[in-house]
Amino acid sequence: MTYPLIVLPFLAVTVVVTALSARRPGFGRRMRASAVAAAALFVLTAVFDNVMIAAGLFTYPAEHLSGIRIGLAPIEDFSYPLCAAFGVPAVAALLPDRRTA
Q1: What is the pLDDT along the chain (101 residues), one digit of tens a residue?
Q2: Whole-angstrom Cα Rg for the chain
Q3: Segment (H or E) for 51
Q4: Of the chain's two ends, which shows fewer C-beta atoms within 10 Å, N or C?
Q5: How much is the pTM?
């Protein structure tokens, strides 16, 4: 189960940064937008990962996976785009506003 362990630091950073951004204005709006982006990225990841795996472009050693799959794609593949959907807007919210700086 190597890949699930690799995901943990990305998940932890995303949770911490998102929590820190909760005090910034527009948190609810940002979370709704992130949820929409996450849903789109989830669908795109499901489609394209399954196509690429089915085409034989890459494989994953079963002993390094959690065993949970969506089609042919391991669940671990979905973590990075989903972390990005929430983490990137949170980091942007934490950066100083360049218009007032």
Answers
A1: 688 899 999 999 999 999 999 999 999 999 999 999 999 999 999 999 999 999 999 888 888 888 899 999 999 999 999 999 999 999 999 998 877 65
A2: 16
A3: helix 27-54
A4: C
A5: 0.85
Asked if residues 91 and 28 have their Cβ atoms less than 8 Å apart, the reply is no
Extract the tokens encoding 1. Answer: 């189960």
Owner of token pair 């362990």: 5
CA angle 25, 30, 33 (to 5 degrees): 160
- Could you tell me the two tokens for 66? 């959690």
Q: Residue 49: name the closest of 78, 84, 79, 7 by CA.
A: 78
Q: Indicate the DSSP class of residue 33.
A: H
